[in-house]
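# nightly structure sweep
# worker-07 picked up a monomer target from the shared queue
# config: single-sequence mode, recycle default, output format = structure tokens
# input follows
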Amino acid sequence: MSVTLEQAAEALNGKLDAGEFTASAKFQIEGLGAIMLDSTGARVADEEADVTMSADADTFQSILEGDLNPTAAFMSGKLTIDGDMGTAMQLASALA
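# output follows
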């Protein structure tokens, strides 16, 4: 079951405390679009970011629901990361 981008952004905002994530990141979800995360929260947008993480909708949903660890998704090839790996690790910690 796929989540819409708006629902996913809302869920991410519920997981992140305001100002907790100070860098910028983009989740590129195959076939759906992109969600941006920065110090103001999550929103549907496709902008430049410190790191871009790409996955299919099912993988992204599993990460969002806590069923799949982002590091495990990356190690298994389900999640690709382009950009600052430190920022990706900071985001993974914030979402845990």
